[in-house]
Design goal:
The protein is 40% helix and 8% strand. By secondary structure, the protein is of the alpha+beta class.
């Protein structure tokens, strides 16, 4: 084989590039860690590891109990099999052994071992209170009391620097590198270390308040409807009485749930899953599929995945089945909550509040 001068030059440049990349120093890639040795580990390995993924997908992560509960909810929705006791034990194991990782040297400190982009920033309220003092003294005039911005400063609740920040890493770097103006005139780079971490906690608290924990997300009085009108709608135009009975499945429902939960269960029944604290999943009717391949055997089971290209289910034995969707593949979907979904486009605000008032009156 004859190697031209041009080919030799390209080869040398490529080799030099590879060698340079190989010689660069940098942080080693994290090695996947196993689960901590603690009560419940075997259940996690058996239920989670044997279903759809290995346990390394959660090893090394950190979450609050509520967040781990949401993870388990999603796992169950995707077909994980386990008794209520086992699922509760899984949440208990994860919450105790993989708590939120807050790190002690945020703002880019060398010892920072805090959460990455896949982990939520867990707000420390004491740190947020200290951060509020920093914000009030240096940031509030431009960015506003609620950090939602003014004509002189950006909305920090929507700022990518804040949203991508974890424990001061991005906020601290921004203040250090951008020479950002402050109210007092001090150099923004001097807001570092613990002050930057505290400021980040305060800003993340404002984000959380805006998204889900603020005054507009707190339960309010939903009993503003007319119970009699709700009864008429329930038995008439709403069509509720076709599937439900106030002396059967809804008997005494007004005693069982607070009005806010009544409204949630009535409007979005299939979104209510595993209970808070990891115990006792709410009983739900699963969405089922019946799939018949051309000339093949019909398979029925619980929906795992369904889109325009693929379909997957688990049969009664827990076995996983999947197909590529083609014109010859027959797919029948049975959603027991389909009527509730369809009615969301038909209810008026009055209809919804009237029904809630009626359900609450069924003692």
């Amino acid at each position: 084989m004859t190697l031209t001068y041009r080919g030799l030059l390209i080869s040398l440049v490529f080799a030099a590039s590879v060698a340079a990349q190989g010689s660069r120093s940098g942080p080693p890639k994290p090695v996947p860690r196993g689960l901590p040795d603690a009560p419940g580990k075997e259940i996690v390995q058996r239920v989670c590891g044997a279903t759809c993924h290995g346990v390394e997908i959660v090893a090394g992560k950190g979450n609050t109990r509520d967040n781990w509960t949401n993870v388990v909810n999603g796992m169950v929705a995707r077909g994980a099999k386990g008794t209520p006791q086992e699922l509760g034990d899984i949440v208990e194991f994860l919450a105790k052994n993989l708590p939120p990782r807050t790190g002690a040297a945020g703002a880019g400190g060398a010892g920072f071992i805090g959460a990455g982009p896949d982990d939520a920033h867990i707000v420390d309220l004491a740190a947020a209170a200290r951060g509020k003092s920093v914000y009030t003294a240096e940031c509030q005039n431009c960015h506003g009391e609620a950090a939602r911005g003014t004509k002189d400063g950006a909305d920090l609740v929507r700022s990518l620097v804040v949203l991508k920040d974890r424990y001061g890493a991005s906020v601290g770097s921004f203040l250090k590198l951008k020479k950002h103006p402050t109210q007092s005139g001090r150099a923004s780079a001097s807001i570092e270390g613990d002050q930057a971490i505290d400021l980040a906690h305060f800003l993340h608290m404002k984000v959380a308040e805006t998204l889900r924990n603020g005054p507009y997300s707190q339960p309010i009085n939903v009993l503003t409807g007319d119970a009699k009108a709700g009864q008429e709608y329930f038995n008439g135009a709403g069509g509720c009485a076709k599937c439900h009975s106030v002396t059967g499945d809804l008997a005494g429902i007004g005693r069982k749930y607070e009005p806010v939960m009544l409204q949630q269960k009535f409007l979005f029944p299939k979104t209510l899953g595993f209970g808070r604290g990891g115990r006792g999943p709410t009983l739900q009717k699963p969405v089922t599929l019946t799939v018949t391949p051309a000339g093949g055997k019909t398979v029925t089971g619980t929906l795992v995945h369904l889109d325009d290209f693929n379909v997957a289910l688990r049969d009664e034995a827990g076995d996983y089945h999947s197909w590529v969707r083609t014109a010859s593949l027959k797919v029948e979907k049975n959603d027991p909550y389909a009527a509730h979904v369809e009615m969301l486009d038909k209810y008026t605000d009055k209809n919804m509040h009237d029904i809630v008032a009626y359900l609450e009156s069924i003692k």
